[in-house]
Prior knowledge:
This protein has helices at residues 3-16, 20-35, 39-45, 58-71, 76-83, 90-100, 102-108, 121-135, 213-219, 225-240, 250-259, 279-295, and strands at residues 140-145, 159-162, 165-166, 179-180, 183-184, 196-203, 245-247, 265-271, 302-309, 315-322, 326-334, 340-347. By secondary structure, the chain is an alpha/beta fold.
Amino acid sequence: xxxxxxxxxxxxxxxxxGSGLTARVCESLARAIAADQGPVGRRVKSWPGDPAVGxxxxxxxxxGALHALVLSEQAPDLARAYAMGGGADLNRVISDIIQxxxxxxxxxxxxxxxxxxVGRSAVLIAGAWFLxxxxxxxxxxxxxxxxxxxxxxxxxxxxxxxxxxxxxTLAGEPDSALRLAPLWRSKPPQPAAxxxxxxxxxxxxxxxxxxxxxxxxxxxxxxxxxxxxxLRAALAIAAEQPPRVERADAADWLETQLxxxxxxxxxxxxxxxxxxxxxxxxxxxxxxxxxxxxxATPDTPLAHLxxxxxxxxxxxxxxxxxxxxxxxxxxxxxxFHGRWLDWQPKEI
Length: 348
């Protein structure tokens, strides 16, 4: 796919997700790049990989580079344009930025986007509530694949609103600085306490919430203020409760973790991450789950919770539980950013 098609596709995706500003930024970037003969234009036009959405996501790398300049107060003209929703001067401003901040942009776009969207923790909390009703009194260790900065490893410390209002956190705290309130398209699960003894994750390129917090903020679209507020709250919690994320291949790491004799339950989960794993990695992850599941007992259950794209509306939610046998559920669907949940668990 060519770089221009990648920008056109990203523009449509941004509009579909309600981000009109980012859609206009993508359009202005495409015009500016087409006319630019400098280092940024040359780099984008000769991009060695696949610039497409879901591959290298080159448009989002450039959008992140611009937002980083706004957040760091290095581009006041661009900040004013963003505040006006784009404004008539957006094309000119972005063309100027590409010329004036080419070194920053070139460095920034060498890294793949990592948003570590904490809105997805609404799915994880709901899944933990549901699992608590199935696997009591087992305690669980959390194992996250594709954990990025590990912000969703702290989901037990976030609050989720159900029909009765915000519920106490799974960590036993009465309230949380991060309160998730998705639109429930169906009846939410019954809140229930799941005993959690520890949490760790893996990522090929883990980010540090303190060192890399500004980069994470930059990848959030500038007009999505609720997402920015959630991320700020998650980063503040991570400063108090640093997530533990190891740099490794997901399959290598999970095989090692599940090879350890189980003394408790284990919950393996991932949210919009599996699509980025090579097929060989996905196959090994599945084999490791099946092997460990065959050894699981009611006292040492193994659960696998996934939130992944399958071509339908939003992401598909699936749960498997091995506890002396295998049970599987289709839990429903959720928006990729956690804006809505359609919770309709059906055992398969």
